[in-house]
Amino acid sequence: MTRAVGCLLDLPADHISLTVLDWPGSHWAEPRRAPTNCSPLGKIVRPARGDTLSRPVEPVKEVAMLAATDNVDEAPFDPPYLYPDYRSSVLRAPKRPPVQLARGFHDLPGPVLGPRAVNWLDHDLTRQHEGEPLGERIVVTGRVLDSDGCPVRGILVEVWQANSAGRYVDLGDQHSAPLDSNFTGAGRCSTDGDGRYRFVTVKPGAYPWKNHRNAWRPAHIHFSLFGPELGSRLVTQMYFPGDPLMAGDPILQSIPDPRGRERLVSRFDIDTTVPAWALGYQWDIVLRGHAATPMGA
Predict the structure, then answer these.
(1) Which residue, among 251, 270, 252, has the nearest Cα to 262 in the 3D structure?
(2) What is the pLDDT of residues 46-60, one digit of tens each?
(3) Which of 81, 168, 197, 239 is catalytic?
(4) Quick one: pLDDT band at residue 85, thresholds 50, 70, 90?
(5) Is 217 tagged catalytic?
(6) Looking at the whole model, is its pTM more than 0.85?
């Protein structure tokens, strides 16, 4: 009998979602018929490795439940903890048996989102300073959905990214590309009644990293989603269509199934594009089920 388990580790931000384990539900639960009406509360859930949803549950309570199952295979879309081509995973992948977590582990109030509410301009990364940042202005939008295609409302969505030259505002980033005094590279918003988020930003640049010889990370934006409880954080990355660097990126390629990798790639959308102002990209995030968005890549 397998219960939700997790390894207690402190991991670097570039792969921090590996600390976000123990999600109820599963990629491999029996598919449920889509309901006529979605719950007004929505739900944010994520499977732990080896967990399945054993019975229908209430939307909010679903986050805190831990289901049990036998003989469940590894997730086909989430990356493994250890992927030798991604060199830092060798150092931080768990080397000890998982820790079994008690039922009710996620029954904690939260999340703690800071002293102020989400500001109406927090979603616009191009209007946080006196001037506008350099680079190609883009709009990134999409919906956060559950396994039935229902919108997940009121979820805190946070993003962070490099600037258009491929440089983060971070002391640990010593890439020789220039910083942009008008771009911090972080924003947040809450999903609306349709589960939709929307960000205005600049397209991030590729940047070198020391994983292997001549290694470059493709352009990407980090996403973090917070549900109604402290244990409900999910972290993933969004990529851009047609980027030739994706084929050689060990973080993206650590997802074993190509269908999972495709789910992390946004699509250009002419209807989202604002004439003479910004190109538009659509990217939906599915939290669980067979169409779930991979987390941790």
Answers:
(1) 252
(2) 444 444 333 333 333
(3) 168
(4) confident
(5) yes
(6) no
